[in-house]
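Posting here for the record, re: adenosine-5-diphosphoribose.
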Amino acid sequence: MKTQIGIIGAGPAGLILAQLLHLQGIDSVILERKSRNNIEGTVKAGILEQTTIDILREMGVGGRMDREGHFHNGNYFQFNGQRRHIDLKKYSGGKQVVVYPQHEVIIDLVNARYENGKDIIFDVEDVTLHDIDTNQPKIRYRKNGLDEELVCDFIAGCDGYHGPSRLAIPDRKEHVHFYQYGWLGILSDSAPAADELIYASHDQGFALLSTRTSILQRHYLQVDPYDDINNWSDDRIWSELTARTKTNDGWQVPDGPINSKGIFQMRSFVCETMQYGRLFIAGDAAHTVPPTGAKGLNLAATDVKVMSRGITEFYQSGSTDVLDRYSEICLRRVWKAERFSYFMTRLLHTDPKFDSFERGVQLAELDYYTSSEAGLSTIAENYVGLPIQWGNVGDIKSLIN
Ligand code: APR
Ligand code: PHB
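Prediction output follows.
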C-alpha cells in the first residue's frame, strides 16, 4: 500500500493532522492500535484553548463543540477559603476556553474522516518504522494476522507517549520530570459546582472542580501518586473535596453518586528533537504535561498545525523551510506550555515537604497572581494558549506574527 503521509495513532494529533491534510488535498493513511470503540470511549481531560477552538472551526469540525461545549470566559482560583475570579477573556484580549471532552473531539474527527470517504485502520499490531532517512519511509504492521507494509513520503508519529515513533529518532535528548503529586479523578452524577472551573489550593492538597454536563461533573483531588484507589471510598472522596473547596461564606461542593474513579501520576516530558529524516513526531509522542495547565490536547493540535503547513508547502512549492524547522517551531511553544503547566502545578499543589515559610510564599504568589493586573494577564494569556511563532528563534518579527 502507498500513501503520501503515513500517520501512526488516531488520537487528537493523528486525527487533526489527517483532516488538515485532507483539506489541502493530501492523502494519508491512519494506523491505530486500539479499536474505534476504545478511542471514542476513553475518559480524558476536557479543556480546549482558543488556539484549538480556532483549528477545529477552520477544519469544519467545530459544529458540535460550538453547540454542545460549555464556553468559559474565565476560571476561579481559590485559597484560604476565598474564591478569586480570573477574567480570561478580559486579560487575553477576548479569548475563551471551552469544556468539550477529548473523546467528543475524537468522535467528531473520526466522523469527519469517514465523511471524507477515508478510512482508519484500527486494531493494528507490531507497528515498526523503516528507512526514515530515505525519501521512501515505510511502516510495517500486522492486521488480522497478516504482515502489511505502507510506503509513504513522510511518517507522522502521533502514537502517544508509549508508541514506537519517538524511539526511531537517534540521538534524541529526553527531558523528564516527575512530581510527587498524583491526581484522583472522578465522574459524578451531581450538579455543577460553579459556572466556571475552580482550581483550589488547600493545606490538605489541591482540588479541581470541573464539569462535563449539567448532570455529570469531573472533579480531581491531589493524592499520593502511589496510593491505591481502593483506599478512597466515595464518602472519603466527597469529604476531601468538600474540605478543600468550601469557602468562608459556607458554600460547599454539590455531591452525588460517583460512577468512575482512578488515580494517575503526573510527569513533564520533552523530547528534543521532534524530527529525523522523513519522520516527524507530534503530541504526547514528543512531550507530556501535568494536567494542571490543561495543555495536553492543545499542544497536540498546534504541533500538527505546524506539521501540516510544512507538508503542504513541500507539495505546493517544494519548499522544506517549515519542515526543516518543524522541531524548532514546535519546541519553542512546547517549552512555554511546559513552563506554564509546571508553574501552575507548583503554584497550586501542597508539597508535603514544604515548611510554613514555603507555604506562606505560595499563598503570597496566589494572592499576587489573582489580584495584580500583571499577574492576571500572565495567567490568562498562557491559559488560553500562546500563538505559534513561525519565524526563526531570535528573529524579533517572529514574536508578533
Ligand atoms: N501503533 C498504532 N497506534 C498506536 C501505537 C502503535 N504502536 N501506540 C499508540 N498508538 C495510538 C494510541 O492507541 C492512541 O490512540 O496512538 C494514539 C495516541 O493518542 P494520544 O495518546 O491521545 O496522544 P495525542 O494524539 O498526542 O494526544 C495528546 O491526548 O492522551 C491525551 O493527555 C493527552 O491530551 C493529550 C492528548
Ligand atoms: C478536565 O475537565 O478534565 C480538566 C479541566 C482542567 C484541567 C485539567 C482537566 O486543568
